[in-house]
Every structure is written in C-alpha cells, then in structure tokens.
Specification:
mainly alpha; single chain; globular
Amino acid sequence: MATAKFNLQNQKDFVRVLKERVNEYFSTKGITSYGDSRLYWKTVAMMLIYITPFVLILINFLPFWANWILYLVMGMGMVGIGMSVMHDAVHGSYSSNKAVNKILSFSMELVGGNQFNWKVQHNVLHHTYTNIPGMDEDIGEKAILRLEPTGKWLKIHRFQHIYALPLYSFLTLSWLMWGDYFTMFRYNKAGMTKQIGHKISKELVKLVIFKSLYIFAHFILPIFILGMVWWQVIVGFLLMQFLAGFILSVVFQLAHIVEETSFPLPDEEGNMENSWAVHQLQTTANFAKKRKLLSWFIGGLNYQIEHHLFPNISHVHYPKISEIVKHTAKEFQLPYYEYKTFRSAIASHIRQLKVLGRKPAQA
C-alpha cells in the first residue's frame, strides 16, 4: 500500500507552539485530555436511545407504524453510539484506562460494524493520509461517486451532486451485508493486519460471531422466535439503517469534501510539502460550531480540525481548544476552514461534488 512522508522540518514552530498551548490549557485547568462525566452520562443516554426502543419493539404491543418510529429512534442511537462512544474509545481518548477503551470499542459491533476495519481505515489510513488520493480510503473509488480530483471519471458523475446524498443512506447497510468482509480480506492481503499487530484468523472469527449475533437479534429473534410480521421488521430495520447511514456519511463528508479543502499529492519520491499538522489544516473543515445540541449528538465531529490534530483528546474538550487552534493557525498565517452553519457546509459539499463530477480536462 502506498505511503507518503510528511516534511518534519516545515512549520516546526507552529507545531511546537500549538502543542505547548493545548498542553498548557489542560495543565492550567487541572484536567486530563480524556473524557469526563459529560462523556459518561452521554454514553448512558446514547445506549438508552438505542436499546430502549429495541426492547419496546420486541415486546410488540404497539402498531407497526409506531415500531417504525422506534426503529428511527434506534437509528439516532446508532449514530450517537458510533460518534460519541465508539469513536473516542477506538482512538483511546475515552478513558486513561485502556481496558475501558477496549470494552467500549465493542460498541461498534453493537451497532453492526467492525472495529478492526474501522481502526485501519479511519485511525491509520484516514487520519494519517487525509485527502491524499490513493491513500485515504474515505475518498477512494466508491461505485458511482467521485470524491477526489484524480479519480476515474464516469459520465454518471456529472449528476453525483444530485444522487450522492440519497446514496449516503446505504453506508451502514453496506458495512453489514458485505463491506466488512471484503475490507478485512483486502487489508490482510495488503499486510495491514500484521502491521497493526492483529491475526486475520482471530479477527475473522470475531467478525462472523458478532455479525451473526446482530442478525440473530434483529431478524431471527423478532421474526422466527417472537412471531413478528417479517416485512414489518425488515422495513423498520431498513429505516434505521438508512437514517444512520445518511447522518454518518454527511457528517464525515462535510469535514473533507468541501470547496476550501484540498487534495495534496506527494512528489515522485513520496514526499509531502508540509508537516502532518499543516496537512490536516489544508484538508479539514469545521462546521456549525455554535450549535451545541448538534455538537453533543455527533460527538463533537463538527470540530474536525481539532479532532484531526489531536485525535487522542476526547471530543468533550474540542469547543475549548478550538479557539487555541484557530488563533494559533491565524498567527502563523495558516488556513483554518470553518462554516458557520450546517446548511452552508452542505451547500459547499454539494458544489464540490458538482466540481468533482465534471469531466477532467484532457492533458
């Protein structure tokens, strides 16, 4: 798998000053960079939003349309668990106790995903090689979506700004049905499994077991054991998946596929022009920072710049350190991209999709 080497000599003063100021914030406040009671209570809330509706569905005392509403609530719970609980845990920022992080990382399996694939794709590839074509799989070739300017162009891409948002709804369903299996074998073939110290046999067994338990809980138990109407269960399940997939996709796309962010390429020897930290500023954007409820629900991922620069800091601290990051970036005349509203970020994303969907000029 291709790699890129960042320039450790460039922007050294910026990197040093930024780290010093963020560390000083925590030392002055006398707090750690891990999660605190705000995150613990949020974990309880997200688990209840996901599990309580499911229990009510299984009791099956409500009309089917009411159960479908409960499935939509579960979809919100999926998003909350993934972005607020699993995300911090897999990054090791939830708690200073590694065992707690490891246990809560399994919340990925609770919502039908696979934490091993997430660690490779998100923690390793995406966070290291953000928006670098051919290295960041988040912008890699995806069926009929073209998310980076050097990707293969198809005629249908001219309309991707129209069909992309509905297509995003299939994200979690694709992970569940086939994506996690193909991805795991692909990473193993590329040597990524061994590189991060895992065994393919162990990861495959875990994948099959947890996927089977998920299928049992959502289909076998309600339909074949509790006797619920099969099509009502399937429709409800799809509603949950489509809502979760849409929200998750949109949040992550708004961080990197907008008009201001760039897609830097290494030179022929694989060297990048800038340091890793400045690369994150070039390729990442924030949005709707003043929307506290939105920020709470999506695990502070509207503060993507702070998350990318400090992935080992819990998201509960992002609002405070964002002013430090923004001020320091401006001081060193470096970019700090942000959209004041969710709507403006969506509009920019759609415009960027339209640009990426145009036929590339012939060399």
